[in-house]
Design goal:
By secondary structure, the protein is α+β, with helices and mostly antiparallel strands. 23% of the residues lie in helices and 32% in strands. The protein has two domains: 31 residues; 87 residues, mini-chromosome maintenance (MCM) complex, domain 2 (Sandwich), CATH 2.60.320.
């Protein structure tokens, strides 16, 4: 009975395994920190426009360092920066979602504070931005 089940559903089983393996590879590749150094840009919306308040080269911070940044005359946030990682340590917002997010080192995971209207976006200066899988049979040589 078990043998006949596998025989009747072999194609579905193989297809399911292929989809699972591809999903795992994609998740690992998107969450993996790229080899290049990261630049963090702190943006702030001042009511009229979004401005870049500060820019950090995260590769230059070998030891953990605390940095205070003035978003405007009244609001100051505290950041912790270490090698290719950044997080918000404290901010005078209501929900502290930006603080609770913790460290980020992935350009796909920005830090966003909706209360204070600031965001920290990471940019990679890595040469590789996209990996394309090609079947060997489809190559022109």
């Amino acid at each position: 009975m078990v043998k006949s089940f596998f025989k009747n559903h072999l194609l579905e089983i193989i297809l399911s395994l292929v989809i699972i393996i591809i999903s795992i590879i994609l998740i690992i590749s998107f969450n993996k920190n790229k080899d290049g150094d990261l630049i963090a840009k702190l943006y702030y919306y001042n009511g009229e426009e979004t401005i870049i308040v500060k820019e950090f080269d995260l590769s230059k911070y070998q030891e953990a360092e605390i940095v205070n940044v003035d978003l405007n005359d009244e609001v100051t946030i505290t950041l912790e920066i270490k090698k290719n990682n950044i997080r918000v340590v404290s901010a005078p917002c209501k929900k502290h979602l930006c603080v609770n997010q913790g460290f980020t080192s992935n350009p796909n995971k920005p830090i966003i504070c909706l209360d204070l209207e600031f965001k920290i976006i990471l940019y990679s200066n890595s040469e590789v931005d996209l990996i394309v899988w090609v079947k060997l049979e489809e190559l022109p040589y």
